[in-house]
Amino acid sequence: MKPSKACQSGATISRRAVLSSAAAMVGATVLRPAATLSAVFPPAIPMFNRGRYALFPGAAEEYSARAIAIIGRATVIDMLSPLVLSFSKTLQWLNNPASITAAEIQRFKDSRISVFHIAIGIGGQEAYLDCVKFFGGWNGFLTQHSDDFLRITAPADLDRVKASGKTGVLLGLQNSDHLTKPDDVDYFHGLGQRVSQLTYNSRNLIGNGSTERRDEGISDFGISIIERMNKVGMAVDVSHCGDRTTLDAFELSKKPVLITHSNCRALNPVHPRCKTDEAIQKMAKAGGVMGITGVRMFVRDNEPTTIENVLDHFDHVAKLAGAEHLGIGSDIDLDGYDKMPPEELKQLRAGYKGSYGFRDKIDIEGLDHPKRMFDLAEGLIRRGYSDADLEGILGGNFKRVLKEIWTV
Question: Most buried among 109, 119, 266, 386, by the most CB within 10 A?
Answer without folding.
Answer: 119
